[in-house]
Each structure stands twice: as C-alpha cells, then as structure tokens.
Design goal:
By secondary structure, the protein is α+β, with helices and mostly antiparallel strands. A hairpin with a 5-residue loop joins strand 1 and strand 2. The termini are far apart.
Length: 116
C-alpha cells in the first residue's frame, strides 16, 4: 500500500496533485474512543481513488478509519526541477502534511464519543 498516489501535474509544471494516505494514530482520544472509530463516525471515509479494488486491504483500511486520504497540491521549488527533486518535494510535503493532519485530528476529535 502506497502512502502517496500521484494524480497529475499542472500544465505549467509548477506542481502536482497527489493523494496522501495518512495513518490514523492507534489508541484512544480523551474520552476513550478509539481514534479510528472517531474518524469512521466523523468523516465517514470513502476512497477517492476509483481504481482501488473494493475488496483490497487499502480500501478496507480507509473505510475502517485506519487511514485518511487527503488530496493535496504540492508546489515544486521551480519549473526546472528534475524528476528526483520533484519526488523529494512530494515526499517532504507528505511528512509535513501527515504531522499536520494528525495534530488536527487530536484537536478536532479530542472529545468525540463523549456522552453528556
């Protein structure tokens, strides 16, 4: 299973649309609700990639809330970047974006599942 799916480069070669697969943290939030349950209930995830087979491990992980998919535009450092530089930029953005997504989840879903 890939963490990064490259979709398309813009016509001016300034960047690429990608899908990042971000692993949902294992464990529970502050009210003891499992993080993947929070994601399943709050986001109700489905894959944006039609080519992932319905019975695949990747699709199952997305639907189960173990992985979040996020479509992102990665802007290159310049239009003359080599393929290796473009790949390095995409990978660096994935690492940064993954941390941001996990931090946002921790804030947004901290009390998800709390009974009043």
């Amino acid at each position: 299973m890939s963490n990064i799916h490259v979709l398309n480069q813009d016509k001016k070669k300034k960047g690429t649309r990608v899908i990042f697969h971000v692993a949902v943290p294992i464990g529970n939030n502050s009210v003891d609700t499992p993080w993947n349950q929070c994601v399943r209930e709050f986001i109700q995830p489905t894959s944006v990639l039609a080519e992932i087979p319905a019975n695949s491990e990747e699709r199952a992980a997305i639907i189960n809330g173990d992985i979040l998919e996020d479509v992102v535009f990665v802007r290159y450092n310049g239009t003359s970047d080599t393929p290796a530089q473009k790949l390095a930029k995409i990978q660096a953005d994935y690492i940064e974006h993954s941390g941001e997504v996990k931090a946002d989840l921790a804030i947004e879903l901290e009390n998800w599942g709390k009974k009043a």
